[in-house]
From TrEMBL, chain A:
Binds 1 NAD(+) per subunit. The keyword NAD applies. NCBIfam families: PRK05476.2-3 (NF004005). Its cofactor is NAD(+). Keywords: NAD, One-carbon metabolism. Belongs to the adenosylhomocysteinase family. NAD(+) binds at G300, E301, V302, G303, K304, G305, E321, S374, K375, H376, N421. Substrate binds at T135, D209, E234, K264, D268. The keyword Iron does not apply. One of its GO terms (biological process) is S-adenosylmethionine cycle. This is Adenosylhomocysteinase-like 1. Residues 31-80 are annotated as: Disordered. SUPFAM superfamilies: Formate/glycerate dehydrogenase catalytic domain-like (SSF52283), NAD(P)-binding Rossmann-fold domains (SSF51735).
UniProtKB/TrEMBL annotation, chain B:
Residues 1-154 are annotated as: Disordered. This is S-adenosyl-L-homocysteine hydrolase NAD binding domain-containing protein. Residues 20-29 have a biased composition (Basic and acidic residues). Signal peptide: none annotated. Belongs to the adenosylhomocysteinase family. Pfam families: AdoHcyase, AdoHcyase_NAD. Its cofactor is NAD(+). It comes from the Eukaryota. Keywords: NAD, One-carbon metabolism.
Amino acid sequence: LTNVFFCKCCAPFCSGSLQIQFANTEDKQEFSKFPTKAGRRSLSRSISQSSTDSYSSAASYTDSSDDETSPRDKAQVNTHGSSDFCVKNIKQAEFGRREIEIAEQDMSALISLRKRAQGEKPLAGAKIVGCTHITAQTAVLIETLVALGAQCRWTACNIYSTQNEVAAALAETGVPVFAWKGESEDDFWWCIDRCVNTEGWQANMILDDGGDLTHWVYKKYPSVFKKVRGIVEESVTGVHRLYQLSKAGKLCVPAMNVNDSVTKQKFDNLYCCRESILDGLKRTTDIMFGGKQVVVCGYGEVGKGCCTALKALGAIVCITEIDPICALQACMDGFRVVKLSEVIRQMDVVITCTGTVPHAVTFITSALIITVSSKHIRTSIKYASLRSPELTWERVRSQVDHIIWPDGKRVVLLAEGRLLNLSCSTVPTFVLSITATTQALALIELFNAPEGRYKQDVYLLPKKMDEYVASLHLPNFDAHLTELSDEQAKYMGLNKNGPFKPNYYR
Amino acid sequence: MAEEKDQTGSSWDDLPLPDKYPEPHKENRVGLNGEAEEGASANPVEESTKDQSVKCSPNLLQMLKAAKSWRTAQGRDREEVSESETEETVAEARKTDMQIQFTDQKKDFNKRLTKTGRRSLSRSISQSSTDSYSSVCSDSSEDESSPRDKLQKNSKGLSDFCVKNIKQAEFGRREIEIAQQEMPALMVLRKRAGGEKPLAGAKVLGCTHITAQTAVLIETLSVLGAQCRWAACNIFSTQNAVAAALAEQGTSVFAWRGESEDDFWWCIDQCVGAEIWQPNMILDDGGDLTHWIYKKHPSLFKKLKGIVEESVTGIYRLYQLSKAGKLCVPAMNVNDSVTKQKFDNLYCCKESIVDGLKRTTDVMFGGKQVVVCGYGEVGKGCCAALKALGAVVYVTEVDPICALQACMDGFRVIKLSEVIRQVDLVITCTGNKNVVGREHLDRMKNGCIVCNMGHSSTEIELASLRTAELRWERVRPHVDHVIWPDGKRIVLLAEGRLLNLSCSTVPSLVLSITATTQALALIELYSAPEGRYKQDVYLLPKKMDEFVASLHLPTFDAHLTELSDEQAKYLGISKHGPFKPNYYRY
């Protein structure tokens, strides 16, 4: 499973909009090509963290080995007599429903959105075709969209991530879902095609994660775009593709970049990593942090989160950084800013969250090496240099390798240099809830925007929506937001209901 | 590496120059110029993204009943502000629309200065430039005659200045030397750029607080090749000895502590000295100098290459000019640079809240229940400092995003009225008015401390406390007891004015950040090629911001990692920065 989820938007360098360089040029080259049989890699392009359900505690009840026939060949009918879907086994619907109900508990924001907007049906008439990970959390999103008046057709954006029972439960309620765990590449495109291409139904909204659906529609059904009111894109890759389209002048509908909303970015990077660094390290190594010397490479959002968490546990933390502003922030927060080579001999733990190519690991004596954030697999740690004949590799448990030098020195490498937070810890439902709520609001905004507000371009989510996402989550903390009085609002020159900060507020 | 480490400790003379930072006035052109960057960088998306953030319609669907935009609702100022809605950003340095709310200052903007008393002269409210509680004081009582009537000469025979007493120069020189120790960044800048004189030919007209720190800035500008004439932006803040030392050194300074309003404008006019000297740069704090030139010597504007403005008020005035189409030179807004903002608000307040409270009340924080109104930069700083001392901290907030941040940082978000009965300390930092009203004050418990860390002195509803039934008792400077008829006492600090300005000092590191930013902004504006800056208000380019930060890193013995060529290529950024896009949220 973990082979698929190796990438993640790198926090320090992409928190505004896209500033990401696909330096490996793998993605770049692939971009404008029509997907060919380039193997599975091209299918696992979705790299948005919070949508990646990599280590879910709710693993499928039923493993996929129970039935060898492809779902494509099976004719299935749900209890309403509809057969416009394709899932592994419609009979698992009941299990899936339970999963969805559990997820609903943790996604109170979407539930309250349902309640608040149900009377108005802000999405009445919307025909949404979606391509995301199909998990219980997504199901809550889909059912919310339906409750708000939309018709949905859904497919998976990743061939491994689908929860079969959830897909069955969705199909049972009448949402045409085309997805199962372990699709082949051919299946993957077949599902997308089935999702888009149906008699008597034409999509007018697209919710995409990774850009595959948009790409397919753009190549195969350009006429659909005439009816589409907007695209909501979640992943860094997909947004990057949209910007390329936009730049080439080929984007003919407005698109909304939800990846870079303030709330989502903070949760994906700062808050999520603050917790997952400890979780991941504990799960894999059972290390005790007090008094350990730790060097964190990079002091962007991810780095800030890691440092706070480690400092709180009594670790001695120092930082390496290239950006003087971030370095100064680290100084003021009480962390020593050093170069890696200065301290590497005495460190117990090395954590990289820079998104960049690393220092030669050969300096390291006996330390844990952990990658928390990187754009691409293994680039943060000079992985290839470790695969030399004089070094012995020993796998001590899953995700933990000992690399043994000829002189007996051991270095513990976690997750083979892949992202620790994706490989060895879970993504909290709360973070997924932020993402899903943001997506729902982006859809509502695009669908309800008056003609002409959005041109054929890529937009960020309006500040007001961002604030609304945050406010929907406040009840989880029993937080009581203060309301401006009329007098105060006038004094501040604000509307009482927001937006409270200008777009460029940091 | 070890060698470098040793050096940094000794003094600024030996500071290793950060070689990796190229001369700002030469190098940043590549980094900053939009076209050049587009060609060079592997980052084709950035440019278009820059626009997106502006294009984003803040409009909302009916469901949310939202405001049309941030600006339209600006109550008192609707007609002017709404025009700006259509503004788009351009070029490399972002223009900003004003987002600051003005209260008192707004009214006297367009008016010619009238005899409104001293308030209009002490308009400069930029925090780090306000030297309100300086440990360095020069008393002015020694001589009652006005400096205007005295003819003074410095040791070189020059008399083109006007200070209290030129004989104090030696004291002032010592002050300046102390300040130099605390402002290593400017000293490094001198050393780095001194050979090249990036400001050669610049004639800088300045109007700022005249303190030892400013003197270091002025002398740095001189070392960089500029000629300077200086006046004070505040009638009370001048350190006479420092002004004398500057005059002695040959800088034409017109300032003394305790000027009258008439003196103030006389000094500015003398400073402009229209007949003998044509300024080509302006460094202003509060906008008075700009205003004077605009009104009295409009012809001077033709020669100007740019204005650098530091204070919130001054920037607001520049935006108004710009909006009216009357700004005919480029202006640089240094107040909103990332580094300066972080230091003025977050870091400075984090320290001064504790300092100010300790100085005034000697309160012990452990276990105290504290409510902090507002969780912006200032609020975040206050909360972090108080939590670290073991206080139980509550937050009130109106913005859901900031409220969610407070939740995730482990603070309870409540409404003020819910906890007002039980808290020991109320701190306001919202920038709003009447956050703590009489109804709250009435319900506070005995001995509750109330103070203001925010933007203006309106946050606590003071008028409501000036009633007959309440007795005021001044217990020490800046500390008042307000006594209710039933004997309940509330401790009000600094009469509701800013605690951090009234009751604590501004660390010189913060002043150093400000001064370095100003110097770099002057260099940038002066050496920018024709056409890079139009007649508008700009933010300091990111590259310069990063340079300011990097100049201060040696203070912390911080060793910045350098990108290898391979890494720089991978990230698609230059090895020397800028490292982050303009919209990056630090």
